[in-house]
TrEMBL record:
This is DUF488 domain-containing protein. It comes from Mesorhizobium vachelliae. The lineage of its organism: Bacteria, Pseudomonadati, Pseudomonadota, Alphaproteobacteria, Hyphomicrobiales.
Amino acid sequence: MTLEVAVKRVYEAPAKTDGQRVLVDRLWPRGVSKKDAELTLWLKEIAPSDELRQWFGHDPERWAEFQKRYRAELDANSEALAQLRGVMRDGKVTLLYGAHDEAHNNAVALAAYLRAHS
């Protein structure tokens, strides 16, 4: 099975090429209606813990350590990973996030984790 996973800001318009749209943030993004988001699933349980998210604060200098700590949280979160992998069996998945930084966010880290553990 080829893993098809993309990453996209939830503020970008939905596209047919997105496949299954999964929001992977713990908090609902400001200014986005549930209707406009066109989600397949809001999987807040797979997001980083509040403690880790607040420690990281989207500081690029903490990115490497954030990824390491988040991977450890994911390793211990088999239930949420199983739920996401279930959605992924149906084809392409786009992981959605609300952060401004497109390179340093939990969806990017989660996509890398999934690719490494597929």
